[in-house]
Amino acid sequence: MTPASPPRQDTAPHPAPPAAEGRPGLPRVTELLLSAFAGHRGARLRLGALTLLTGPSGSGKTTALRAYEALARLGGGAELAEAFPEPGACVPERARVDAQRRRGFRIGCTADGPEGPVRLEVAVQAEPELRIVGERLTADGLVLLRTALRDPGRRTVQAAWHTAGATPVTRAPLPDDRLGTALLPLRVAGKTPGQRRVLAAAEQMVVALRSVFPCDPRPERMRAPVPAGSGRLLGGCDNLADVLGRTRAECGRRHALLVDAVRAGCAGPVADLLAEPCGAGLVRALLDRGDGTRTELRRLGDGELRYTALALVLLTGPGVLELDAPGEVPAALRTLTVLADGLDGALDPAQRTHLLHLAARMCERGHLRLTGAVSDVSWAARVPGVTVVHLNRD
Question: Which is deepest, 121, 180, 295, 390, by most CB within 10 Å?
Answer without folding.
Answer: 180
